Amino acid sequence: MKQKTILKLKVKNPYIPSETKVLEFYRESPDNFTLTLEMKLKHDPGQFVQVSLPGIGECPISICSYSGEHLKLNVRQVGNMTNAMTRLKKGEKIWVRGPYGHGYPMKVLKGNNILMIGGGCGVAPLKGIIEYVEHNRDSYKDINLVFGFRSPNDILFQRESRDWTRKYKMVVSIDKDPHASDVAACYTGPVGFVTDILKKQTISPTNCVAFVCGPPIMMRYVIEILKGKGFHDDQIFISAERLMYCAIGKCCHCMIRGKFTCMDGPVFRYDEVKDFKND
Amino acid sequence: MNTLSLKKSQLKKFLSKVMQSHELIAPLKSDLVRFTKIEEPKQAGEIYLKENAFFPLKEYFFRKQEQIFAFDGNKITVNIEKPQKRVFFGVRKCDLNAIKHQDMVFLEKNVDPYYKAQRDEAVLIGYHCNEAPSIYCFCGSMNLQDYYDLMFYDRGKEFIIDIGTEKGSKFLSGFKDMVKTSEYKITENDKKIEGTDRLFKKDISGLYDNPGWQKGVDMCVSCGACTTLCPTCYCFETKDKKDIHDTSKSERIREWSSCQVKEFTTVASGHTFREKREERFKHRIFHQLEYFKEKNGIDLCVGCGRCITGCPTRIDFVDIINKM
Predict the structure, then answer these.
(1) For residue A14, which residues of chain B lie inside 8 Å, CB to CB?
(2) Which residues of chain A neighbour B230 with C-beta distances below 8 Å?
(3) Which of A55, A80, A242 lies closest to B71 in CB terms?
(4) Which of A139, B23, B150, B245 has its CA 20 to 30 A from that of B128?
(5) Does B80 touch chain A if contact means CB atoms closer than 8 Å?
(6) Distance (Å, whole) CA B109 – CA B106
(7) Contacts within 8 Å (CB) and 24+ apart, A251-255
(8) What is the chain B residue with the closest CA to A6?
């Protein structure tokens, strides 16, 4: 048998993640946590990275921070990978490649008011924008945050949101009245879907853009309400979630009709994808 | 450019000589016609050119299953074996164009080193169909290009050879004793294949909501044979496999995957984006005939007809589109 030789690569291998370390594991809610990684990565708000644990797999996670110092990833425990990630401790290794995709076009949107509507862990990419805005506060006018979670226990980013309430107009709501189930009976905040909160607010669409991120059904109703308030399709930005493997426009799992979530998205201006319904 | 010629009686000698310096892969007929590695010179005389191979060449470049990296518990290493120098003989125009389209996917942006390794050392020798080798062929509708190192045209007692690339020309320089210069000029007429212009509607962009798809959807069983047999389909998935003897070690594997299978778009939370068979059925055809063109200016489909030949219920999407 002939000796097999290993090829020396002349091109960069786009599938190989680089090694980094966990700086902090912070539990946000019973099924959600934030990882802070020792990784300095230049990225736009709204972009994502591919996170690997060799032997388990790889999955796309949106970046929920904007800082030159480290990388924060907010993760909901739903699958093999994200459950395995809960075992990570400070100082342990994790592998990351990216950033990928198109984030929110923040430079183009300078001078506007920003309305951010997030549901559940859909708030994570929006957190990246809030941090971006903090770095560039003079470039944007009023910031209005409307976030919804299932129950008081599911409210994310409580560490950060105290600061946000001081600086911006912000409403955090929960879906159902917690007193009915007796869980977290001390909750005194607003109750109702983000759509209900949104309906009650007076929002002028003039010089305003809306960023919507959350479960598909929530996004659909939120967009309906926004359009009722006079928002045009090109004033609304959504962030899509799909199954993906390569993140570089090859594996095709993330296609929404002809668009690749990994390359053309994950952030889409609503008029680009509005005809695509559910596929 | 001038053409060359090779007497048909010398094909066996030609291929035997190829085998001295290269691995030769050519169509042989067994239960089916398949591209096979020719092990012995005597097999070179059995090469079967009457019909196209059932399976495309795809798996030789974009492997059915391959390792992306190995993990030893601490570090990631990439082990791409240096491939043999290979000659592919008897490749049809459709399959050559399919390789072109996969080259666009894997070699243009974010070069895929696994594909590149397999592709770099390959010499592609085409065999031009004189007539449609199957009733399902529709390459004549697909605006195919010349994409080969060498192309053999079957002309009576000899092959007329058209040189497509520098690589092909260099390769032939070793065969001066058999290959002679020829006066034959390849014309557009030579490049036409009779009976293959079967798809009459070239633009399907307005047909997404057409009720005509239902006929195909009703017959589809979501088996994924079409995508497996397709020479251009390039979807894949990756998975990690642990070493069962030492679970700290593992490897990441890449495999072909099929958009016709429901799980293709199922995310961790359990939600499937293309839940309905109709959506999946249309997705493949629209990717082939529209989405790829939007991005790359050319149809992905090459009109080989394998997805129809290999379909257990013989869904002829060309016919379906024509009837809309």
Answers:
(1) 110-112
(2) none
(3) A55
(4) B23
(5) yes
(6) 7
(7) A251/B235, A251/B236, A251/B237, A251/B238, A251/B257, A252/B234, A252/B235, A252/B259, A252/B287, A253/B235, A253/B237, A253/B257, A253/B264, A253/B265, A255/B283, A255/B287, A255/B291
(8) B81
Helices (H), chain A: 80-85, 123-135, 158-167, 178-181, 194-200, 216-228, 270-273
- ipTM, two decimals: 0.89
What's the pLDDT band for B156 if we cut at 50, 70, 90?
confident
pLDDT category, A268, cuts 50, 70, 90? very high
pLDDT bucket at A183, cuts 50 / 70 / 90 = low
Which of A255, A259, A272, A275 is the best mutation test for B, with the most CBs of B within 10 A? Answer: A255
| Dist CA B313 CA B315 (whole Å) | 6
How crowded is the C-beta side of A129, counted as CA atoms within 13 Å? 32
Q: Are A273 and A238 in contact (CB under 8 A)?
A: yes
Q: CB atoms < 10 A from the CB of B152, how many?
A: 24
Residue bearing tokens 């600086």 = A167
User: A220 vs chain B: nearest CA distance in angstroms?
Assistant: 15
Distance CA B142, CA B95 (A): 12
Alpha carbons B292 and A74: distance in angstroms, whole number = 33
C-alpha to C-alpha distance for A73 and A51, rounded to whole angstroms: 10
Bridge partners (DSSP) of residue A155 are none
Answer whether B250 sits within 8 Å of A278, measured CB to CB: no
DSSP B130-161: SB-SSTT--GGGS------SEEEEEETTEEEE
pTM: 0.91
B78-127 per-position pLDDT tens digit: 998 888 899 999 999 999 999 999 999 999 989 999 999 999 989 999 99
Give residue B1's pLDDT: 61
In this structure, the strands spanning B3-7 and A32-37 are unpaired
For residue B234, how far is the Cα from the chain centroid?
10
Which tokens go with B176?
A: 């001066």
- For the stretch B21-44, pLDDT in tens is 999 999 999 899 999 999 888 888
Query: Cα separation of B242 and A84, whole Å?
Result: 14
Q: Are B294 and B300 spatial neighbours (Cβ–Cβ below 8 Å)?
A: no
Contact call for residues A225 and A61 (beta carbons, < 8 A) = no
Q: Which of A158, A115, A121 is nearest to A133 (CA)?
A: A115
